[in-house]
Amino acid sequence: MTADRPPAGRASGFRIRAYERNDLPALYRICLRTGDDGGDASRLYDDPELLGHVYVGPYAVLEPEHALVLTDPDGRACGYAVAALDTVAFHARVRERWLPPLRQRYPDPAGDPRLWTADERQAHLLHHPDDAYPRTLPPAFEPYPSHLHIDLLPLAQGQGLGRSLIERLLALLAADGSPGAHLGVSARNERALGFYRHLGFMRLSETTGGTAVWMAKRLP
Predict the structure, then answer these.
(1) What is the pLDDT of residues 163-183, one digit of tens each?
(2) Quick one: DSSP state of residue 133?
(3) Could you tell me which of 30, 13, 122 has the C-alpha nearest to residue 67?
(4) What residues have CB less than 8 Å from 209, skipping those under 6 apart?
(5) H or E segment at 113?
(6) What is the pLDDT of residues 4-54, one digit of tens each?
């Protein structure tokens, strides 16, 4: 990938570039502002960093070579796409290197989970990571060992920028030897489900209770 390339399509002034270390706070803000099924989750969390600790921080820090940043015409980060080339190996690194210091910072919540706050639900994942960072993948996922996340602020949506981010990230994964990638989507987010189907992702399975849908695509 050539850094600082303009996306294909009709968007003007936006750029996709490789992740840089000083981008991390901006990625955390984007994660929070898109963390409520694509909407702003700021009102839901007392600690604005918790979502980022779970859903973007480990990717940017532990696998920066598979992280892309979208910038607006003023050069400000307004989106990102991050990935793990080998999901099982990445989850092992998260457990060994990323989670231990966070567990010291955030106590494991007690009491009735039905009464937990949004902060407490995320803190629970740090201490019990099997849902977020499982040690193994189901057999159906074996042809798709990579996985990815993407988030765009509203100003960057509806312009073909998400497609450009996904395509470039998938190209990076394919160039590094991945035969396929998967991702999770909220079952309530019909717009996202349609977006990924349009990009060639197929439905693999649902989580227990049908709250999320897993989709996958073969590469290249």
Answers:
(1) 999 999 999 999 999 999 999
(2) S
(3) 30
(4) none
(5) none
(6) 666 654 567 999 999 999 999 999 999 999 998 888 999 999 999 999 999
